[in-house]
Specification:
It is built from twelve helices and nine strands. With about 325 residues, it is α+β, with helices and mostly antiparallel strands. It has a nine-stranded mixed beta sheet with strand order 3-2-1-4-5-9-8-7-6. α7 runs parallel beside α9 and α8 packs across α11. The longest helix is centred in the C-terminal third of the chain and has 26 residues.
Length: about 325
């Protein structure tokens, strides 16, 4: 993986679970992508804020790298992480005050537009972030294709209309690029590595998809009480974590693993595993046979549009998209 040897990437993430309205729940987890370990899992109200979740406040060892989506964007948190020797990567939240590397006020949208108009598809510059925090960091912006920007603007219009507002012109201009910030210098992480690492957050979504589609995490009887729904969530989560442990031991050392394929295979072996639970030798034999089969559940390598595991192995392959 394209990380310095002393980095362990930690990914906070959340996913909706069971119920609706006041009974709705969601799962927050801290996932270490290098080992696949779930470091912490919390069940919260579906209306709770990601930014205020205990997961977002979790302390990780110095030398770790945390990767946040916009739901966790917080300058106070970034400052605390820097002080604790923890690095971070995040998307930049719209409207945050930005200064240039010398600390002078910067009209970021105008600066990016000038660079885009000059033919720059990739921008990698030093900035200072936040009117009060003044965090020295790096900004990486990638201009997206016009059709992608158009789809983003259409979504921005729809979201604003849903809340009875009109999308601002500045916010619509913001959709022309994807903008990341990090305290990692280029010597530590190339711009390609920053983007590939951020994309790795999608693996959290795939993990939740496995739990939902293969473990039926969101399914419950229509007439089930909130208490029964919660009990079912906990019971299914136990099964999901056991499943995750099996997949980690069998497939995680292979970069080209496919969790979706492996989960489907594991589901076919549930009866074999259940029948062997009261016999240690039989259970060991079943797990060893299952491990060999799971190792065959792989993602194919591609010359065009490399798979994510290929980009992790060699982030330089990302250049074909710029």
């Amino acid at each position: 993986m394209a990380l310095p040897d002393d980095y362990a990437a930690q990914f906070p993430g959340c996913g909706g679970t069971a119920g609706s309205g006041r009974a709705a729940l969601k799962i927050q987890l801290l996932w270490e992508i290098l080992s696949g370990a779930v470091r912490r899992l919390v069940i919260e109200s579906g209306k709770s804020s990601d930014a205020l979740s205990p997961i977002a406040q979790e302390l990780v060892p110095a030398g770790s790298l945390m990767v946040f989506d916009l739901g966790y964007f917080c300058l106070d948190r970034f400052r605390r992480l820097i002080g604790a020797g923890v690095s971070w990567v995040s998307r930049l939240q719209f409207g945050v005050t930005v200064y240039d590397g010398a600390g002078r006020g910067l009209s970021l949208l105008d600066d990016l537009q000038r660079r885009y108009d000059a033919g720059q598809r990739l921008i990698d510059i030093t900035i200072v972030l936040g009117a009060e925090h003044r965090l020295g960091c790096r900004l990486i912006a990638v201009r997206v294709p016009q059709e992608t920007a158009a789809r983003r603007r259409q979504a921005a219009h729809a979201k604003a209309a849903k809340h009875g507002r009109v999308a601002s012109q500045d916010y619509l201009r913001w959709q022309d690029g994807t903008i990341f910030v990090t305290d990692c210098a280029a010597e530590r992480l190339t711009w390609q590595a920053v983007i590939v690492l951020y994309r790795t957050r999608w693996q959290i979504e795939l993990l939740f998809k496995v739990w939902k589609s293969h473990n039926g995490l969101v399914a419950h009887r229509p007439e089930a009480s909130p208490q029964e729904q919660l009990a079912m969530v906990y019971a299914k989560l136990i099964g999901a974590l056991v499943q995750h442990w099996v997949l980690l031991t069998a497939t995680w050392t292979h970069n080209d693993r496919s969790l979706m394929k492996a989960a489907a295979t594991l589901r076919e072996w549930i009866n074999n595993l259940a029948e062997a639970l009261d016999d240690l030798k039989k259970l060991t034999d079943v797990l060893e046979r299952l491990q060999e089969i799971l190792r065959g559940d792989r993602v194919e390598r591609r010359r065009k549009k490399p798979s994510h595991f290929q980009l992790l192995e060699n982030p330089e392959l990302l250049e074909w998209q710029i």
